[in-house]
Each structure stands twice: as C-alpha cells, then as structure tokens.
Amino acid sequence: MAEASYPEDLQYHSAHDWARIDGDTAVFGITWYAQNALGEVVFFDPPEVGSTVTKDESYAELESVKAVSDVIAPLSGEVLEVNAALTDDGDGPEAVNDDPYGDGWLVKVRLSDPSEVDALLDRDAYVASLED
User: Fold this and answer.
1) How does DSSP assign 107-126, residue by residue?
2) What is the pairing mode between strands 107-111 and 77-82?
3) CB 12 within 8 A of CB 123
4) Which of 36, 79, 124, 125 is deepest in the core (most CB within 10 A)?
5) What is the predicted pLDDT for the residue at 87?
6) Shortest CA distance to 18 belongs to which of 127, 132, 113?
7) What is the distance between the alpha carbons of residues 93 and 9, in angstroms, rounded to a whole number?
8) What is the mean pLDDT of residues 25-45?
9) Residues near 20 by Cβ (< 8 Å), separated by ≥ 6?
10) Are 27 and 15 in contact (CB under 8 A)?
C-alpha cells in the first residue's frame, strides 16, 4: 500500500476524491485516505465511456475486502476514458491502493462546468478537513 500523501497539484472533494485538472479535462481518483479506509480494493465498476457524471453524485463503485463504496464525482462532465488497467483484463484494481494518484486513477472527464473547480479544496484545506 502507498504511503500517506496528498499531492499539491490536485484539487480535492470532501468525499475523499481528487481531480487533476488540465484545461477542460480532468482525471479523477480517490485519495490516499479513501483507499486506506476501504482496505484492499478487489473490483472496480466503472461508468461507460460517453456517459455523464454529475458533481457530488456517485459515478462508479469500488469493492474492497471490507465493503462496496460509491465513488463521488468531484466535478461534472462526460467520461472520455476509463482506466482499463483496473479491470479484470488489466493489472487489476490493486493499483488504487498501490498508487492512488498515478496508476490508480479512475476516469478522465471533459468538464461541462469548469467553474465547479472553485468549490473544490486545495491540498492544505483537504488535509485540514481530515483532522476535524
């Protein structure tokens, strides 16, 4: 499992999801805190490419040895790509635990409302929220 970390270049959602924003697209994943709370991830049920995700709503499920958890969208948009490496055909969902900010990314999305980014937390605000 990866060491606890929260990269500076990401925006964070209070539901323990992150977004790496590049222009009008973003990559989503779950934070170190979320993967640690889940435990060993054994299955990823992704959305369909071309489907729409809505900020603050569930768009996928991660199943761990402990539970099945909804993944909450930090921003709204259209799914452009799903991390195929996390499926049974790829290396498997263990990458979510091993590298939650790199190989363990979940989806890439074309943002429908880039102003939603303003509601996300920066690294320091997110880390402070974990201490409350």
Assistant:
1) EEEEES-GGGGGGSB-HHHH
2) antiparallel
3) yes
4) 79
5) 81
6) 127
7) 23
8) 96
9) 9, 10, 11, 26, 27, 29, 101, 105
10) no
Listed by start position, the domains of the chain span 11-123
d(CA 20, CA 26): 5
Task: Kindly report, residue by residue over 58-78, the tens digit of the pLDDT.
Answer: 999 999 998 999 999 999 999
Residue type, 37: A
Distance CA 114, CA 48 (A): 21
From the list 71, 81, 72, the residue with the least C-alpha distance to 109 is 81
Name the token pair of 72: 């909450």
Distance, in Å, from the CA atom of 19 to the CA atom of 119, rounded to the nearest integer, reads 12
Which of these, 82, 85, 107, lies nearest to 95 by C-alpha position? 85
Token reading at 50: 């071309």
Predicted TM-score of the model (pTM): 0.94
List strands edge to edge, sheet with 58-64: 41-45, 58-64, 68-72
Indicate the class that CATH gives domain 11-123: mainly beta
